[in-house]
Amino acid sequence: MRIAALHPDVLVATSAFFQTTCTIVRSGNECFVIDSPVHPEELEVLPSVLQQAGFTFSGLLATHADWDHLLGRLAFADAALGCAETSAARLTAEPGAAARALRDFDDEQYVERGRPLSLGQVQALPVPGHLGVGDQEMELHPADGHTADGMAVWIGWERVLVCGDYLSPVEIPMISPGGSRSAYRATLERLAPLVEQADHVVPGHGSVLDGQRASAILREDIAYVDALPDAELPIARRGPSQRVIHDENVRRVIAT
Ligand SMILES: [Zn+2]
User: Fold this and answer.
1) Mind listing the pLDDT tens digit for each residue in 87-111?
2) Model's pTM, two decimal places?
3) I need a surface site. Which of 134, 139, 202, 212 has the fewest CB within 10 A?
4) Contact in structure between 42 and 129 (CB atoms under 8 Å)
């Protein structure tokens, strides 16, 4: 796991698995952990990462309800998990789905964990909306289209955008079950003005981007989504696993 400080108050931990990112935001005496790393050892050290930084843990947030972003409770056992109303609805509609997906992943990768995932108390946050942290406020913006749910978090006072599974330098736009091309496109449009103001953009998977690089990916992703099903893959994201995602996108766009 890589850990980078974007600002004295914003840390990003990047998992060795899928380069899944976890963003830690502090203001005053409060600190939120957005999304999660994946491997048990990575989760295990998270509390000490906060401690060494002098951050007091307040709660967990998730950008969306895909299992690989929901593992924070394996690091902070009693924590409440805040997410968009759309994500809370998805978690209610699919009880146990994240825990099952994690079990399948662990089984496939021979990963051993001390305990199964339990999401505990899920707090549905109004999105669009605001969430106070210390003496600052984060903005919550709807970010659906990859899936049926989700939110992007704008940390305005540090000009950091945590956008969930959009604008990834390693993954092409992925239209998963529940997602749609039109919603994906609308989310990219919604993120554009935030990306323009951002010093840093933290995608759900891959390295942290500066605003300029994120803008370039945003333009590529709009072009890709618009051109489906005949889209060409962006030059830097054309490996075999991206082609598998692309084939799924094509199937989904043709079916709707
Ligand atoms: Zn993801």
Assistant:
1) 999 999 999 999 999 999 999 999 9
2) 0.97
3) 212
4) no
